[in-house]
Amino acid sequence: ILVGTRKLMKENNIEYESAVPRIEQLELQGKTVMLFALENKLRGLFAVADTVKENSAQAVAELQKMGIEVWMITGDNTRTAQAIAQTVGITSVMAEVLPEHKAEKVEALKKEGKVVAMVGDGINDAPALATADVGFAIGTGTDVAIEAADITLMRGDLTGIVAAIRLSKATMRNIKQNLFWALVYNSLGIPVAAAGFLSPVLAGAAMAFSSVSVVTNALRLKRFNPYGA
Asked: 122, 101 in Cβ contact below 8 A?
């Protein structure tokens, strides 16, 4: 008994050409087709399909609005991959990629000068998650993927990727603002204090105000809505 792809059938010299039109028809519907052979003869086909998550198209659209290039990397055949990619608005697709080659594809994108974030949930995704600049694991996925990733999305909703990126950018902006104002305070205060024009009381008050302003600015992140526009 053999169950697998056309490649498996070809390697075992099993005739499957008569079923190709039906196979291609199913693949164009976004389904992965497995061939079933018994005693060196093709006996049937199995077609399976992953259900596209409800918010996947929205997440892809939001990422593209942010200027992020979205790629699909999958082991599915090209027709199936293209069909699924079209439903969620992805134009760049790497199909028929074996699990052990996913990390190589990520590395290839990095060598092109791209900063790569990889999203995955399976054992086969772990090497690619570790290779990427930033790895996003789906919290509903495998423990191996979660361990290899840098960020774990607690829900299976892909809009969490958008939220994580927006929140990280807001955090970096906040850090830069705090560093700027701390530098301004010290640049103004130290020369004045060195010249003897700043009493210890005022110096202490200025230092306290500097700390309070930095903390207050950082606390603004508690009100930040990463799902907003």
From this structure: no
